[in-house]
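Hey, resending since the last one bounced:
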Amino acid sequence: MKLNVKILLWILLAMSSMAHGRIQELQSLRDLPVVGARDTWVIFDVDNTILRPTSSIGSHQWADLMRDEEIKKGIDPVVAGQRQHQYFSEVQGFVQVKLVEDDFLDVFADLRKSGVSIMALTARGDNLIATTLQQLIKVKVSFVESFPAQKDSSVIQSYVRDGVIFAGGKSKGEVLSQIIGNSLHPPRRVIFVDDKRYNLEAVEKAFQNSTVEILGLRYGAADPFLNVDKSLADLQYDFFLFHHVVLPDEKIRSLQKNLGAIVEARFSLDEGESLSPVGNCQEIGLSVKRSYKDHYFICRKIGASPVPSKSYKIRDYVGVGRYFFIQ
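The C-alpha cells again:
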C-alpha cells in the first residue's frame, strides 16, 4: 500500500509547529502519518497494536478482568496485580496470534523504503522475550534490520532483543529515553503508536524538556475486541489448564453450543478416597488450585437427561467440580 501523500504533508506541518507533541487518535494504520526522513523513528507497541490473540484469554483485557475478579474476592490489589501478570504470562506460549490489521506488513514495508528507523516498544518483561519474538515471527514481523545503531550495546542489552524494546516494569518513556541517549544518530522526531494513552503520556513526559519532537498516536483498531466474554474466557482457561492448549474463540463457541448443560457441584474427599466415574463419565483431569482439589469430568448424556451430579458423593463444600455434559 502507498502512504497517503496528504497525510505526509499534514504531519510535516504539524511537527514543524510543535515543540514536544500531542496525542492524537489513529483508527487505522492506513492513515499513519509518516515523515520520510532518516532522523525519524517510528515505534509500535506490541499487544493490541501489532498483534492480538485469537482467543479471549491471553489478551491484556482478559488479564485485567482476572485482576478485577481477584480484587472482588478480597485479594489485596497489589497481590491481584502480580497475579494479573502471572495469568497473562502463563498462556503466552500457547496462544495463537494474528495481526491487528492485515495492512501492517504493507505499512512496514513502506516505512522501510522511506528510510526511517522502526522498532517495537512493549511493556512485556524479560520473562517473555523468547515468546514475544516467536509470536512476531509467526506474523512475519521483524525489527532486526530496522533498529537504529547504538553506541554501547551493553547499555541496552537488558532491554532490547532483535529490535524489540522490553520495558518490563519500567516506564516506556524512561526506557526510550535511554535508548535514544545511547543512539549513534538520535532522532529529531519520534512517532509512537500505542493502544494505551498512559504509555503515550509517559513518553511525552519523558521528553518534555528535550528537543526531540514526539507525536503520540492512540491506536484504536483493536478497540472492538476489548470487551471479554467472561463465560467463554472461563471455559477457554479451564480447557487450557488441563490440555495446555488455548483454543481460538470460534472453537470455544462451537464447544459451548454443544454443551447440553454445565452443572457445578461441591465436594471433598476423605483421606485415600477417590471419585469414580459413573456411567459414561470419564475423569479428564485433576489440578491443585488454592487449597483444594478440582476434579473435572466430561460426561455424555444418557437418554434425555445428563448424568446427575448426585451420582457422585457430594460432601462438604470445599472443592469445586465442574461437569461438562456434551450432546
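Residues 5-54+96-225 form a domain with the Rossmann fold fold (CATH 3.40.50.1000).

Sorry for the duplicate.
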